[in-house]
Amino acid sequence: MVTIRADEISNIIRERIEQYNREVKIVNTGTVLQVGDGIARIHGLDEVMAGELVEFEEGTIGIALNLESNNVGIVLMGDGLMIQEGSSVKATGRIAQIPVSVLVKAKETDIVTSLRSDPSSMGHVESRVNQQGPPCKAKYSWVTDSEVVP
Questions:
Q1: Over the stretch 108-140, which tens digit does the pLDDT of each residue have?
Q2: What pTM was estimated for this model as a whole?
Q3: Angle CA(14)–CA(20)–CA(22) in degrees, nearest 5?
Q4: Three-class secondary structure of residue 89 per DSSP
């Protein structure tokens, strides 16, 4: 017969309490209501921002665009064939960004005019995701006259 000693039990409990990690991670999640034609309707995601990247459980990335009171409209950035109703979605906290690789030395109207006549004059533009964290406010200094923006 095995005897149970109180000091052994209390030592085990103390070790478990000392090893306990109280770190809490809050994740903004939602559930797919419907998906089709490159759009997904999501219930939940209460704290999602317009333009924020979201990730579906099977790996597809989307952008939150239509923020309604009871659901969120997400534009899928992939085929989304594996996304099903009831699957989960999580907000990433990152805003989608497209950097501009053009030096601008004119007004906005001059830029639009030149791009209409020769779209290839813009050069190569590569999209990326903001890895630094929360979104930052953009400066639109290129609207002013005769100012070069690097």
A1: 555 566 566 665 655 554 444 444 544 444 444
A2: 0.54
A3: 140
A4: strand
